Each structure stands twice: as C-alpha cells, then as structure tokens.
Amino acid sequence: MAIAGYVSGERYSLGNPRVLHKDYNPTNFDSSNLEWVESTDPRYIEYQKKVKEWKHQRNVELNPGQQLHPGW
Predict the structure, then answer these.
(1) Is residue 24 domain-resident?
(2) Region 44-64: what's the mean pLDDT?
C-alpha cells in the first residue's frame, strides 16, 4: 500500500516513518484511512496499543476455550 502511493503524507520528510490506520483498524486499508506518521507520534503509539488489544481479542474469538499464550 505504501509503495503504491495509497498513504497520504510524505514519508521522506520523516526520520522513522510508519503507516497509521487512522481508525485504529489494521484491516481497513482504504486510502483515506492511511497516513504517514513518525514512529514517536502519540497517535501511532496509541495505534500500536489498540492493535495489540485487537489482535488479542481476535485470537480469543477465533480460538474459543483455548489456553492462549500470555503474550498474545
């Protein structure tokens, strides 16, 4: 997505660019939902937390009754 130019903003002006999903949904690849941000941007840090929670919840949903590794 990033290489194809679907992400808004200019990544070359950033020291450590990351792609932010503005709605915090890592499965929403709509071009209006993607933006280049610095890895230290508070929105990106919050996004990382939300994605971790989202992945855990999906793991629980997809593996009912299973003992999950604490780091998942």
Answers:
(1) yes
(2) 89
Task: Determine the pLDDT at residue 18.
Answer: 92
Average pLDDT over residues 36-56: 92
Residue 4 lies in a domain: no
Q: Chain-centre distance of CA 67, in angstroms?
A: 25
**Structural domain includes residue 32:** yes
- CA-based Rg of the chain, rounded to a whole angstrom? 15
In this structure, how many other beta carbons lie within 10 angstroms of the beta carbon of residue 60? 13
Give the total number of structural domains in the chain. 1
- Predicted TM-score (pTM) of the model is 0.71
User: Is 5 contained in some domain?
Assistant: no
